[in-house]
Input
Amino acid sequence: MEISLRKNGLTIGFIFLNMAILGIVHSMRGPALPFIQTEYALGYDRIAFMIIVCSLGMFLGVLIGGRICERFGYKRGLLFSTIIMFISLGSLSVYSGFEYLIIKFFFIYTALGCMDIALNALGSRVFITKTAILMSLTHFFFGAGSAGGAQYAGFMLDGDTPWRHIFISVLILYALSFAMIFFAKFPQTHQNGNANQQPFTTVIKDTRVWLAFGTTGFSSIFDFGIINWLVIYLRDTQNMTPHASASYLTLYFALFALGRLVGGVIAEKFGYVKIFFVCMLSAGLLFFAGIITGNALLFSGTGLFTSVFFPLFLSIIVKDFRDDAPSVISIIFPLNGVLFMLSSFVLGILMESIGVQTGFYVIGAFIVIAPIFLLSLNRKLIRKTSCSNN
Output
């Protein structure tokens, strides 16, 4: 059952609102990390461990949320994730040791993962016309929410508001979201497989899959490395206040939102791989220039280019793998999660032992590696297309 866009403005509004909330919660962690670090007297390695646990929660949330939506429907999947979020955010009001804090953030990010997969799956079913425009708007709201969340967190933290309170305040938005679930219309989930899909064992042996994994894996580490560590980096290397450093993260997300809005149109005109490569190169140049010159605006500028990494990766997979795209994504996403957790662990140790300044160069190294995989993947895709045409 597909649902009409005109008759289901509430459902579309629900998707946009919750993508914005996802961005808000996701972006507040960066500005809050220095305060969590001070409160619990944590080293960089412990901060990295916290980031790893959050990533694990997000990863499991995507798996669990996908299964719940597939088995019980979108409505129950969204209700489940919202209830978990209510409990997890509410628990932050009670002070606890660092070990219990990690558990709370694990469930917060599990709820985020559940909500993320449910909203993207729901959008693919609801946006049956003007799909590209509406999906771009969906991710624009994530970027806009991220920009607003980072700015809000920095402003409140600079005014001596406890970091816990900024997370708890998001419950107001989740209360609105919870109410909307009962009035919005949701389509049924698809339960039938695709007869044209190759066996999983055949797909996983395809070299292109592993090159695609290297491309998105290392580019994602670079993106999330900036999001997770920029505020701490600016505090420790340039002695910035929470509000000042969060403002640069806000600008990053604002440009990220703009890139999500217009990047797809540009990529359709000039080609996915070409724009992907140019954006990787541009982001890398701005990043290293930011370290060398000390100009924090250059770090913010990378957001315009990192914004297209994920959408273009999906576009390449869907275009070139066609019926096998779901299998390819199901292989790459878990591997990305493992790679990100391992890289976060290494970054934490490096920053603890050699300093955050040098550690930031390591983050930049990932965006040097990613284009190598992308160009290798492109050669394989061109060769495959040539063989198919002969």
Remarks:
- The mean pLDDT is 85.
- Residues 196-390 form a domain with the Growth Hormone; Chain: A; fold (CATH 1.20.1250.20).
- The radius of gyration is 20 Å.
